[in-house]
Structure formats: structure tokens, C-alpha cells
Amino acid sequence: MIQEALTDSTQHYLKAIYDLTVDGNPASTSALAKQLNVKPASVTGMLQRLAATKPPLLVYRKHRGVVLTTHGQRAALEFIRHHRLLETYLQQTLGYGWDEVHAEADRLEHAISEDFEKRIDSTLGSPVRDPHGEPIPTCDLSMPVMADTPLSKLRAGQSAALRRFRPSSPELLRYLDELGLLPGTSIEILDYSALDHNLRLRIHGKNEIITLGFEITHQIFVELFE
């Protein structure tokens, strides 16, 4: 089990780096500092330590950013799998809201054993997405490919199903819940404003018109209808 040899802090760094480099580009020190809410100097020190492990978990070049090695990527995927399985278990079995599961899973993910992970996976029927629609890495630590598009890129006349949410706060998740914007919800785009990048949309089967700004729409991913 990869995580047994790594500290909680290291696990958070590896997950953050994976998230920031998923598009193939290196993660900058400033981006990591912002995501982890720590000082850039602290990030630099940690990156240097993780680059010096044997085998190295990442490749760090000053002023050029950081990428995970194969070993670091597998470690990150294991932590992500634990976290997303726990989120799903908390929601489906214990009744937690989708706005509550992230913080609780953060506290639990460092402690679970490989056997416990397998039991959760079996109990849930090997889910492929967590409560926010994020893909769950497979047991062999590969990340499923999800064909989705940022909601921010849609324009008037297009229709889609909401698939994946990456909001930055529980408050925003609760707000989206109140609007009825949940994974699986079908929507149609009514209008797009080039001036402020707002989208006006409607949930299929409902009359209410919803207006969302870019700060929200770029954190929601959808599957377009043909």
C-alpha cells in the first residue's frame, strides 16, 4: 500500500499536483500555494524534498514548475481513489450531503487500509463517480476517461446533462442544490452574455430561468446532447 510510507501533508501535495497537471502542463509553485493555502516558500521546500525521495515522487525545476513521476502519479491516484470512495460511502450509506463529504473524507482518507478500501468498493458496487460526478480511479490505479465539457463553453441553443462538479466551497454546492443543479440534471442554454460571460439556462421540464456567472460555470462539466 503506497500511502503507508507517506505523511498526510505529502498526500495532499501529490493530489494537488495531479489535479493541476492533469492537462499535461507543469504545476507552478504559486498555483500549488493557492490550492493548498500555504506560503510559496513552504511549497518550494516540500517540492525539493519530494524530488529527492527514492524513488522520486516528482520532478521539480525551479521557475519551470513540477510534474509527477510514474511513482508519484500512482501514489496520487491511490489517495484520490480512497478519497472519492469515502465520499461516495459517506453519502450513500451514512446520509451525508454532497456539500459535507469532502471535509469528512479528508479526515478519513489517510487512515483506511487496503482491505477497508476493497470492502467499501464492494459494498457500493464499484462506483465509477463520486457524489460530485468526479471519476473514481480503478483498483489498478488508472483514471477513467470522462468525455465532458466545461459548462462555461456552452452557448444558446445547446443542451446537456450535468456530469461533474468542482466547486470550491460547500456553500456553493448548497446553492447549486437549491437551484436543482445536480449530477444527471438535463439543461438547455437560453442565452450567453459576452459582456459578463453569464449563462442563462433552464432545467428541462421546468420554467424557471437560472443565471450563472463564469466563476460557477467553469467549475461544472457537462455531457453535450447530440
Describe this structure in words.
With 226 residues, this protein is an alpha+beta fold. 40% of the residues lie in helices and 17% in strands. It contains 8 helices and 8 strands; from the N terminus they run αααββαααββαβββαβ. The strands form 2 sheets. Strands 3-8-4-5-6-7 form a 6-stranded antiparallel beta sheet. A two-stranded antiparallel sheet has the order 1-2. Helix 1 packs across helix 4 (70-92). The longest helix is centred in the middle third of the chain and has 23 residues, at 70-92. The mean pLDDT is 93.
Question: Strand portion, in percent?
Answer: 15-25%
Q: Measured on Cα atoms, how large is the radius of gyration?
A: 19 Å
Order of strands across the widest beta sheet?
Answer: 3-8-4-5-6-7
Shape: globular
pLDDT < 50 runs, ≥5 residues:
none
* Tally of strands: 8
Set out the fold topology:
Elements: H1 8-21, H2 29-36, H3 40-51, E1 58-61, E2 65-68, H4 70-92, H5 101-108, H6 114-124, E3 149-150, E4 159-165, H7 170-179, E5 186-192, E6 199-203, E7 209-212, H8 214-217, E8 220-224
Antiparallel strand pairs: 1-2, 3-8, 4-5, 4-8, 5-6, 6-7
Helix pairs in contact: 1-2, 1-4, 2-3, 4-5, 4-6
